[in-house]
Specification:
Blueprint (H helix, E strand, L loop, with lengths): L2 H12 L11 E7 L2 E7 L2 H22 L8 E12 L3 E12 L2 H21 L7 E12 L7 E14 L5 H10 L4 E8 L4 H25 L2 E11 L6 E4 L5 H4 L13 E15 L1
Antiparallel strand pairs: 1-2, 3-10, 4-6, 4-7, 5-6, 7-9, 8-10
Helix pairs in contact: 3-4
Amino acid sequence: MTGGADAVLKERLCKPRRERRLPGMETHIFRRGGFMHPRRRSLGGVAFAGALALIAVPALAQATSAPNAPPPPFLVASAVGEARIIPDRAMLSVAVETQGETAAAAASDNARLQSRIVEAVKAAGIAAAQIRTSGFNVYPEYSGGKTPKVTGYRTRNTVQIEVRNLGAVGNVIDAALGAGATNIGALSLYASSTDTTRREAVTRAVTKARAEAEAAAVAAGGSLGSLIELTIEPYGTPRRFESVVVTGAVMGAAPAPTPIETGELVVQAVIHAKWQFVSR
C-alpha cells in the first residue's frame, strides 16, 4: 500500500462519523484509545415509561373516584355506677339576729352575742380554724302605711362551722343555741375522702356498660371486640343537705341533745365506652 493510501486511511479512521439524530435520540461520546465512539440510546425506554404513565393515570383516577370503604362497625354503651359511703364531716351555719333603735346599737348587741356563740362552739371541741364568718348584714326596718318610716335596725351575723367528728354535731348545735344563736341555716353531711368509693363506682359502671354491649353484640349476630375508647365524666364531691330551722321557742325547749342521723352518701360514676363489633 502506497504512502498516499495510508494517509487517506488514517484520516478516515481519525475523523468521527457524522451522526443523524432523530427526535428524542440522545448521543453520548466515549473516548477509547484516543478515538471517539458514539453510543446511541433509543426512545424505547422513554416510550415504555410513557406507556406505564398512561396506564397508571387512569387507574389512579379510577381509584380516586371509587367510594371510600365503610368504617368497621362498633358499639357504644353508657352506664352509671353507684357506691355508698358513710359521711364523716359536717358543715353548718349558725346565725344570730338582733334589733336596735340605731344601726350601731343593733350591731353592738349582735357582736356581743356572736362572740359568746363562738366561744361556746370552741368549748364544744371546734378549733378556731374551723369557724369563719360567712355573712354580715345590717338593714333598716320600716313601718307600714302610705309613708313608711324607719322604726329600727336589724343585724344578722352568720358563721360557718366545720365539724370533723359527727358525734359532736349535736353538741355544737346545742352549744350555739344555748349561747344565743337564733338560726341554724343548713346542715351539710359529707365524706372527707371519696377516692376509693369513686373507683368502686367506676368499676361497676364499666362492668355494666360492657355487659350491655356484649348483649347487644350477640343480639346483632356478632361478638364484642377490642375496646376503642373509654370516657369517665367528671364529678363533684357528693353531699347530702338537710335544713334545720330553729325558732326562739325551740331554743328554750328541753335540754335533750339534738339528734343527728348520718345515713349514707351515694357516689356516682358515669362512663361512655366504645368497642369494636366482630361479625360472625
